Amino acid sequence: MKLRGFYRYIIRHRKNVIVLFLLAALFCAFLTPLTGVQYDMMAYLPEQSSSTVAIDTLQSEYQLDIPNCRVMLYDCSVPEALAMKEKLEALDGVKSVTWLDDSVSMLEPLEMQKPETVETWYKNGNAVFSLTVEKENQAQIVHSIENLVGEAGVLSGSAVNSVASQESAGKEVASIMLIVVPFCVFLLALVSSSWLEPFLFLGIIGVAILLNIGTNLIFGEISFVTKIAGSVLQLAVSLDYSLFLLHRFEECRKEFDNPEEAMLEALCRATPSILSSGLTTVMGFAALMAMEFGIGSDLGRVLAKGIAFSLIAVLILLPAVTLCVLKWVDWLTHRPLIPSFQFLGPLVLKIRKPVMLLFLLVLVPSFLAQGSNSFYYGASRMFGPDTIPGQQQAEVEEVFGQSNTFVLLVPNGDLPRESALNTELKQMNEITSIVSYVNMVGSEIPMEYLDESLVSQLISQHYSCMLINANVPAEGKEAFDFVKKLQEAVSRYYGDGYHLAGDTVSTFDLKDTVESDQMRVNLLVIGVIFLILVVTMRMFLLPLLLMLIIETSVWINLSVPYFTDETLFYIAYLIISSIQLGATVDYAILMGTRYQEERYRKERYEALIDTVNITSISILTPAVILAVAGFLIGFFCTNTAIAQLGILLGRGAVLSCTMVLLVLPAYLYTFDRFLVKNRKQDKHKNNLEQERKEPMTV
Fold first, then answer.
1. Is the Cβ–Cβ distance between 517 and 567 less than 8 Å?
2. DSSP-based three-state secondary structure for 193
3. Main-chain phi, psi angles of 498, to 5 degrees
4. What is the dihedral of CA 45, 49, 53, 54, to 10 degrees?
5. Are 107 and 124 in contact, with CB atoms under 8 Å apart?
6. Quick one: pLDDT at residue 455?
7. pLDDT digit string, tens, across residues 343-376
8. Distance CA 528, CA 525 (A)
9. Fewer CB atoms near the end CB (10 Å): N or C, the chain?
């Protein structure tokens, strides 16, 4: 009763509602540029992780960060390389530059030096420098380095990748939207009854998107993953709420002559399914906030907030706008532009037995396969070989191979122990060079006899710094095994009283973090959505069936990379598990609740056929839009992890839609006696019918 009264108030004051939403949208549009964007994945590691503590200690003790850029200079002599090092050090924003002269004496011939050390920095007339670039104004600094080096060399490293992400993000979002929006208009025009409805749908969701991105300012900054995918996902996921409502409105207009009464009845009928679908989606995204890895939390809270705004806009703004422009909607009415789906219901009923058998056959293998994928955890493979950052990295590695920099901080004041550790580390085959006090000066010479500027670079108030270069990849089994080996060696001398930092160390911590997130987040998403469905549907079996259908489509989606021998980015794997479930469970809810509604009035054969015929368009439309949006993200994004997330999302939408339209009806029909209770209209329904007959004054 209260809900009906609320909607009466909205309909009566619809012009004021429209003005209020437009003012809020304009204000949020003004706030949008003020939200910062974080492009460093490692910034989202938990504050208590060992690599984060190590980086914080390095910054507080030495005011330094981990080296994040490699500069390779082609065809240069040693004097030219030394001159370039001085020029690089002189650039604003370049905090440190490391080269061969930091590891060996340049007064002795290179032929007399250890070949492994020399070739780490200078090989076949080519020189490679390791730089630490400030994160503030990083794009400007990287471009300054590129201008200095010119065509004589190339750059690679996490700083270069970060700048590439920054500069491509805005262009890629614009490119995706330029295709997604016209495609949405085209598809919605096919399935709607008026030429105006597509613009009505997109306008309402556009307002919700503006409200969402403007209010992101409350978080201070968002991740680059959220910036690229957030608005596209909100558009694709929440369009179906508008479709559900206006389809109900069309049905109710056949029963009520007064458009206001028809809209009021449509809202009352559609709200339970829309809210149920929306709430499951919101909670599915919100569950990502339980991740310790901050990107999941960031994406989850922004998307959950976005879907909440979409629900508000659809249930409050859409009815108000629709009634205000109804005469234009009617004037621009057109005949159906797509063929009828009346064939689908009988077909689904006919093939139900083989479909059910096939579902049972793929369930267990897909579950096992999706848990056996191989993964990338960090940012080292974010840009593929067909991108400029990927090509530059390949050029550097072709000459100098894989080089990985680690920073080790050990307590100072015990030079003999530090010297012994230094000697053991130099004997490791993976380590190509070490820059340290005992390696450059020796443990015999007291610090007070040395230049203060030299000592301060390696010795701080509490720690002695070792800069270790190793010929290991940025991530993978070999890299992670080396981190463990290095930690074990240092622990024998210093116990837990040391700090080890580096991109691979951070990735190692990231691996532990996201793997611990997986089971907890997945169970939380499934549990919360299932609980919501049980409460709203007031039964156990139907929610269980809906969840099993959608979760199996998730497993099939994530098993494809296993069978095609594709390595997944773990962040894409983890996020899609929640996003696909939260975004596409709406299709199953619509099918299940509509079947129950039809079943109260008809026999199960007729009820199933009518349910499939009625809901197919409402399910296919958002599924196709979500699939196209996902595939466009996969096609346009140069960041491989985001592109992979898009492909998974697109494929997941196709799989979920297929499962809901073909598999779910078969099980609804089979378990009909347990899903539908025979009940007559009760006093509550009689009251509702009586209230519907009351005239409405607007």
1. no
2. coil
3. -135, 170
4. -90
5. no
6. 60
7. 888 888 889 999 999 999 999 999 999 888 888 8
8. 5
9. N
Q: Is the dihedral of CA 161, 162, 163, 165 positive or negative?
A: positive
Q: Residue 365, class by beta-carbon neighbours within 10 Å (0-12 exposed, 13-18 middle, 19+ buried)?
A: middle
Question: May I ask the CATH architecture of the domain 1-34+163-334?
Answer: Up-down Bundle (1.20)
Cβ atoms of 221 and 630 within 8 Å: the answer is no
CA dist 71 and 130 (Å) reads 7
Cβ pair 392, 383 in contact under 8 A: no
User: Hey, is 138 helix, strand or coil?
Assistant: helix
Q: Where in the chain is the domain with CATH 1.20.1640.10?
A: 1-34+163-334, 342-372+539-678
What token pair was written down for 639? Answer: 């960041």
342-372+539-678 placed in CATH 1.20.1640.10: yes
Nearest-angstrom CA–CA distance, 169 and 175: 10
Q: Which two tokens stand for residue 540?
A: 């156990």
- In sequence order, the 6+-apart residues with CB closer than 8 A to the CB of 96 are 64, 67, 89, 131, 132
d(CA 359, CA 658): 12
Torsion sign over Cα 681, 594, 303, 509: positive
Specify the pLDDT at position 26. 95
Evaluate whether 377 touches 570 at the Cβ level (below 8 Å). yes
CA separation for the pair 431, 490 (Å, rounded): 14
Spatial CA neighbour of 313 closest among 604, 653, 22, 673: 22
How, if at all, do strands 463-470 and 375-376 pair? unpaired
Structure tokens at 637: 């994004």
Q: Which residues pair with 406 in a beta bridge?
A: 468
* Residue 8: CB atoms within 10 Å: 16
Phi/psi for 638 (5° steps) reads -80, -20
What are the angstrom distances between the C-alpha of 593 and each of 1, 272, 380, 437, 596? 21, 10, 46, 72, 5
Q: Please give the structure tokens belonging to residue 582.
A: 């939260």
Report the chain's C-alpha Rg in angstroms.
30
The helix, strand and coil proportions of the chain, stated in percent and rounded to the nearest 5, come to 70, 10, 20
Under-50 pLDDT residues of the chain: 443-445, 448-450, 678-698
CB atoms within 10 A of CB 681: 10
For residues 380 and 474, is the Cβ–Cβ distance under 8 A? yes
Of 271, 283, 218, 221, the C-alpha closest to 245 is 271
Looking at residue 665, its pLDDT comes to 93
User: What's the confidence (pLDDT) of residue 476?
Assistant: 83
Cα dihedral 256, 258, 259, 263 in deg (nearest 10): -60
Long-range Cβ pairs for the range 100-109 (8 Å, 24+): 100/127, 102/435, 102/440, 102/467, 103/433, 103/434, 103/435, 103/439, 103/440, 106/78, 106/82
Q: Are 631 and 646 in contact (CB under 8 A)?
A: yes
* Both structure tokens of 237: 């996921």
CATH class for domain 69-156?
alpha beta
Residue type, 289: M
Output the pTM of the full model: 0.78
C-alpha dihedral (184, 190, 194, 199), degrees to nearest 10:
10
Instruction: Give the pLDDT confidence score for residue 687 in this predicted structure.
Output: 44
Nearest to 146 by CA among 75, 72, 77, 66: 72
Q: Are 57 and 308 in contact (CB under 8 A)?
A: no
Q: CA distances (Å), 461 to each of 57, 74, 108, 275, in order?
A: 11, 39, 33, 59
Number of neighbouring beta carbons within 10 Å of residue 452: 9
CATH 3.30.70 positions along the chain are: 69-156
Distance CA 72, CA 398 (A): 11
